[in-house]
Amino acid sequence: MMKNFSLKQSFFCARAEFIKWVCDARMIILGVLLIFIYSFAIEPLKSNAELMGEPLNILEPFIAIANSGAILLIIPLVFLTLIADFPKIDTNTVFYIMRVGRLNWLFGQLLKLIFMALSYLAVIFLGAVLPMLSDGFWYNGWSNVATKFASRFPEHSGNFGVQLLPENLYNQLTVFSAAVQSYLLVFAYLMIIGLILLSFSLVKHKTVGFVLCGAVISLGTAFCSIKTTLMWTMPMANSIIWLHYTKYFREPVMSMSFSVSYLAIFIAVLLLFCFIAIRKFNYDNVAEIAS
Q: What is the C-alpha separation between 145 and 162, in angstroms, rounded?
């Protein structure tokens, strides 16, 4: 199968399908998500900044979004909705696979998934950063709004804006490190969701894969909300930085290397499953394959 592999052909396949995905009418959901994120996370932070008379670091809203349990329930669910038909397999697709080869098609789907996850997160990142450009600052340090608001305004110490940037974050990591790690960890989480869909589609059980994705997201959220050690068995907890640390002590609750290894192994196992499944992929019953 490798002798017919062409990265160029895989890229063209991914590009064509990615463009169709971007132009899909379902993208209106992404606009709704950005409005929700702004009102749910960015406005509370900006309100605290105005009350304090201090600027926010322009990266802090994105870090807050990527580390909020509530929002990190919504982000993968919306992504799952947007890629619900991934990979799209119908009569035309089957003939296309026969023409370009199984491996080229599979690599094309993997590239498309990478493009979708990266661009989806990029839109969320821009949606968090752009509103801050006029009154925020760019520096590898946390704002006073994040670190001192609760002590200056103890009567507001329990408001949601304070909870969005917990001490577990700003006492343990720099802003740049928190932003980069948040982006990459959530990206890995989204890749796992997409790879589960792809894996089960290749063995003709896409509906089961969709349900399993929903279960992974919902169980991860439930375990994180009650702070059980079972949360580390799910991608969600391993994607949220502040859960790895205590408020003050350097010793982590769970090492970041464990989470990186967990996510990497999860992705590697799903990739291996996909490569095995594509070798056994058959075209006998198009209706069955597409279901």
A: 8
Task: Extract the tokens encoding 74.
Answer: 């919504």
Q: Which amino acid is at 78?
A: V
Q: From residue 117, how far is each of 102, 136, 235, 251 by CA, in Å?
A: 23, 27, 15, 32
Does pTM top 0.85 for this prediction?
yes
Q: How many angstroms separate the CA atoms of 78 and 27, rounded?
A: 10
220-264 pLDDT, tens per residue?
999 999 989 999 999 999 999 999 998 877 778 899 999 999 999
Spatial separation of the C-alpha atoms in residues 62 and 180, rounded to whole Å: 10
Q: How many CB atoms lie within 10 A of CB 204?
A: 17
Distance CA 37, CA 31 (A): 10
Cα separation of 257 and 260, whole Å? 5
